[in-house]
Write a structure and sequence with these properties.
heterodimer; A: 112 residues; 3 helical TM bundles of succinate and fumarate reductases; 81% helix; 0% strand; B: 163 residues; mainly alpha; 5 helices; elongated
Chain lengths: 112, 163
């Protein structure tokens, strides 16, 4: 559970940066544009500090969220088959989401 | 090796006990809310990663796409999501995120013994030593900040409080 707490603190910082870029830098409508405003989506991905913090946020939430789900499911019901199945399914979904999000980050900043 | 309970009976017990936080004080509410908010935020997170995947043009794109194509897919996505139903959903997620964050900080501090009371002999009215005033105050702070986030996002998406 120590990693759960560590990722929680990481999310507090990286999530704070994410909410700041989307909501506090300019009106949300401007920041949701594809390009050409200072914090439009492509410009966020082109800034390696912001893109890096998004990647950290992605990995931390993928771990924290799915580990939390795993804990709830393992408290719900006990048994070694159940434990193995929950561990496997939850890990696979977490990795799939992390890979898909990383793909978005790695491709988005190269769009010209 | 199964302990004996069927999945259905485990689920029945869980729904009877986990999701009914009455009668056990404010900490029990924080437990139930922390779990409900955690599950809801995780589901939102998956949807959000799928949604932002459209910045590069969708799930089938694994090489750098044409600018025009990615822009059209993203613009369509933003237009599709700009309706009162999704906006209302986001305000609820805003509430849950702020509650989960601040209540999670309380749990973090309590787990490492920082805001935990000292053990003492049980005396009437048997209030647990762990329920310090600071813990209860932090719980209500998490509710207050969550309500503030809710009002802020209602104002952002529906523009009903401030112009």
């Amino acid at each position: 559970m120590l990693i759960h707490y560590i990722t929680g603190i990481v999310i507090l910082v990286a999530g704070g940066i994410h909410l700041w870029t989307v909501f506090l830098t300019a009106p949300v409508e401007e920041n949701l544009r594809f390009d050409n405003t200072p914090f439009a989506v492509l410009n966020v991905y082109r800034n390696w500090i912001l893109a890096g913090s998004l990647e950290i946020l992605l990995l931390a939430v993928a771990f924290h969220g799915f580990n939390g789900l795993r804990v709830i499911l393992l408290e719900l019901h006990q048994g070694s088959a159940w434990t193995k199945a929950v561990n496997l399914v939850v890990s696979l979904v977490a990795v799939a989401v992390a890979v898909y999000g990383t793909r978005t980050i790695l491709i988005a900043f190269q769009i010209t | 090796m199964d302990v004996g309970n069927s999945l259905a009976s485990s689920l029945a017990v869980a729904l009877r006990t986990w999701l009914i936080p009455r009668r056990y004080g404010v900490m029990r509410w924080s437990y139930t809310l922390q779990r409900i908010s955690g599950v809801a935020i995780t589901l939102y997170f998956v949807a959000h990663i799928v949604e932002t995947g459209n910045v590069v043009g969708g799930a089938h794109i694994w090489m750098v796409p044409a600018y025009q194509y990615a822009r059209d897919v993203w613009t369509e996505t933003v237009e599709f999501l700009a309706n009162p139903l999704f906006d209302a959903g986001l305000t609820v997620i805003g509430f849950l995120v702020f509650f989960h964050t601040v209540n999670g900080l309380r749990l973090f501090l309590a787990h490492f013994g920082i805001i935990l009371g000292k053990p003492h002999r049980p005396e009437y009215p048997y209030i647990p030593a762990s329920m310090t005033r600071l813990q209860i105050a932090l719980f209500w702070l998490s509710i207050a900040l969550a309500v503030a986030a809710l009002l802020y996002s209602v104002n952002i998406f529906f523009k009903v409080i401030l112009p």
